[in-house]
Design brief:
about 130 residues, alpha+beta, 5-stranded antiparallel β-sheet, 2 helices, 5 strands
């Protein structure tokens, strides 16, 4: 494999990583931008095998960060079992409560940005290589 082809393959893989990381955090970013931030206090979670992967359907109480909104018996989905009484970061988007992870969103955004920077750097490096 030539060096040029290796750079293009690496750039393609980094672009794929950027796309995956960006898509994973896109929903959280949209929820942050359009919803009311707050927390959900978990009441209970029940295991559901789900059509594609296992998940936990939970019920709890949402309270906005500023304390102006409180909703009892809200439903939300998690990928893991949460203990009763745990406080989970969430947003209220219309009638829907969405669990969001500030740390996961920041990490995914950083991975996507670093991957895009890598793609640009590799493509610029490719232009400097002599053609075979």
């Amino acid at each position: 494999m030539t060096r040029r082809r290796a750079l293009l393959t690496t750039a393609g893989l980094l672009a794929l990583l950027a796309l995956c990381a960006g898509a994973a955090v896109l929903t959280d970013v949209v929820h942050y931008a359009t919803g009311r931030r707050g927390t959900v206090t978990v009441g209970s979670c029940a295991f559901d095998a789900g059509p594609h992967r296992p998940r936990y359907e939970c019920i709890g109480t949402f309270e906005s960060s500023d304390g102006t909104i409180r909703r009892e018996a809200v439903h939300f989905v998690q990928t893991y079992d949460e203990d009763s009484g745990a406080r989970v970061p969430a947003t209220l988007n219309g009638a829907t409560v969405n669990e969001v992870s500030p740390a996961g969103t920041a990490t995914g955004s950083a991975v996507a940005a670093a991957s895009l920077a890598g793609v640009v750097a590799l493509l610029l490096l490719r232009r400097r290589l002599p053609r075979p």
